[in-house]
Amino acid sequence: MPAEQALTEARKKSGPNYGPDGEGHLAFRRRLEESAAFLGPIVLIGALAMTGGGFSLSSRHIAGLVVWLLVVGLLVLGVAGRALLAKPFYWASGLLLGFAIWSALSSLWSGSVELSVTEADRILMYLGVFLAAFLLAQTNQRRQRFGEGIAVALALLAILALATRLLPHVFNLSFDETKGSRLQYPLGYWNADAIVFSFAAALCLWMSRRSLTRALRWFSVGALPAVLLALYFTESRGGILTLIVAAGTLIVLSRDRLWYLATLLIGAVLTLPAVFLTHSYSELANNYNFPPIVGQGLRVSGVLLAGIALTLGAYWLLRRAERRRSPRVERALAISRDRRVLNGIALTGLVAVIIAGILFGESAWNKFTSSDLGAPSGLAEASSRGRIQFWDVALEGFAEKPITGHGAGTYGFAWDELRPIAMTNTQAHSVYLQALDELGIVGGLLILGLVLFLLWTGFAAWRAAGGRERELYAILLGVSFAFAVGVAYDWFWQFALIGSIFFMATGILVAARCGQLWRARAAARAREGQAVETDAESRRFGLTIAGLAVAWLTMVALTGPLLVDHEIHASTAAAQENPADFESAVNHAETARSIEPWAATPYLQLGLLAQAQGDYPTAIRRFEEAIDRENHNWTLWYLKAKAEHQAGQKEAAQNDLNEAKRLNPLETCLTEGFEGCG
User: Which of 174, 231, 265, 632 is within CB 3.0–4.6 Å of 111 for a Cys-Cys bond?
Assistant: First the structure.
């Protein structure tokens, strides 16, 4: 075929990697690249998971530096010289970089330069993940291995999380890591765990049929009941929704939908005995009274292992029926692939949703929008848990500054000032609405355009693919779609682990789409007798230079806040270890101030240290310097008022306390005066 010949010729010209497979060093390099594609996501996901999902600045920035070093390594080794570039890559990377730049620019008018820069750094970290995935996923084989790596990492993570609940005596976790009935290890938030486990279940479903390795196919089937039980322990409605979206997308877009659906149903049904047994054990279900949990967890583990064995047996029977191709199986397959049947199912589902909306919509909406939070009631809960109020405040903030917004990372200030309920919160629980509040219409359009463009590119890649690749793109699109839905109702964007899954998946899809467009363009040029790609070398050289420049600037941007965070933690530790000697603590805080003089945190730390020493004039001055850099932060005004009160400046203290109350009128501790807030 002309297109394949043209592609082969272009790859031969671009470097020695694409010679005959029989050449030893080329075969070794190919295996090395495939191993990197498989192990890369396992290492990144595992490292971020063990540090709380990359929510903290230090873990996120360290991961960002490592990812960008990987990008630099790939560029230096010439991977960009073999990359197939097309418009989807330029648009996706351009939108992501544009979102980061606009977030950084918002520091010029932001209520906190420090917070805005930190948010820009978060996006730059995601850009590094996207570029690394794009560069690693340049062949069908590497894309397959990359998808398997993501699936294995998430499945192992779900199994580990489940084991901490069923076998608590083995892991010896702290109370903060295991408290509450909802499973929140390792990310510290059950809804974050739930979306990750839902991705794992959907990816295991895909891998059960499409893994290149027989052992991985059986592993994914056996892991499915454990992953589903882990999802049950989170008691997350959002996790169920994202599982439906991710797995549903795979089932709808696959010709093997009947087999996928059967496998999922088998896994779910054979997980139910473990679920029912867990529900009968109040100690295990509610995670209290340690001694009984151990025995109960062991019994549930035994039932789960039996369910896994039965799932594997049922899967073997399923594959046997598939190979036999009996008339009954063929007829069922034909029905499952009949477009008229599918349209009928879709229409029936739509009618059912409309009827349910008419019958129960009003009462469900009233419960969802209620400000009466009460105690969480698990999967049966109808309340939004404050999300309606979070979204209202975001829209109210957007109405105040619709063009530029208030600055990246500053939603927490708007919530404190405008909140209708007395709940502590720093996130709008919707990346789209938070972008409108913080970055105005420009930021809102950038994030929405980025997500929609990546989803459309994934759909286009799936539509143009065939065979095994088509199934891979279907599940990656399903995971990406589930993420896009999830970040509309929760703060998953702030977890580097969850955001990285999305950008790894979409990086693979963009690489696939670029390859499809490149081959189509190569075929058209070959038919017309033209050169395949006259400017390909210059484009790839430009990508290398631009990538190295962005990598250098990004690593500098990530290093500063990371060093400041380290110095502040060192200052706090020094003050706690030796309260009588604050010199080391002050030195660390001064170092942090010298690294980022625009940040409020170093001045806050210096103020607290001076206040602890009884040096109230210095404390007041440092708090004033912090307020100059973050003047909408009510805690800074309160701390300054407290220091003024201790210094005997009664009138100034009362004025600053009143300002703190204005910025956070529902904060009850402020009503107790200068000693009310700890």
Answer: 632
Could you list the residue range(s) of the whole structural domain that residue 238 is in? 137-337
Q: Which residue, 337, 366, 383, sits at the end of a domain?
A: 337
pLDDT tens figures, 421-446: 888 899 999 999 999 999 999 999 99
Note the pLDDT tens digit of each residue in 309-343: 999 999 999 888 888 888 888 887 777 776 777 77
Report the residue count for the chain: 678
Q: Give the 3-state secondary structure of residue 459.
A: helix
In a domain, 361, yes or no: no
CA 113 to CA 340: how far, in whole Å? 57
Question: DSSP characters for 527-580?
Answer: HTT--S-TTHHHHHHHHHHHHHHHHHHHHHHHHHHHHHHHHHHHHHHHHHH-TT
Q: What parts of the chain have a pLDDT lower than 50?
A: 1-4, 6-7, 10-22
**Half-sphere exposure in the Cβ direction for 266 (13 Å, CA):** 23
Q: What contacts 309, CB < 8 A, 6 or more positions away?
A: none
Last residue of a domain, one of 321, 337, 353: 337
Token representation of residue 245:
């979206």
Domain membership of residue 244 (yes or no) is yes
Residue 32 CB neighbour total at 10 angstroms: 10
Percent of the chain with pLDDT over 70: 90
Kindly compute the dihedral angle of the four CA atoms of residues 563, 565, 569, 574, in this order, to the nearest 10 degrees: 40
- Count the domains in the chain: 2
Measured distance CA(100)–CA(56) in Å, rounded? 19
For residue 428, the number of C-alpha atoms closer than 13 Å in the C-beta half-sphere is: 26
Tell me how far apart the alpha carbons of residues 651 and 628 are, in angstroms, rounded to a whole number. 20
pLDDT of residue 579: 74
Q: What is the CA radius of gyration of the chain?
A: 27
Residue 570: partners with Cβ closer than 8 Å, 6 or more residues away: 588
pLDDT at 19: 44
Q: CA dist 156 to 162, 229, 267, 321, Å?
A: 10, 13, 17, 29
Nearest to 119 by CA among 491, 389, 605: 491
Q: Specify the pTM.
A: 0.92
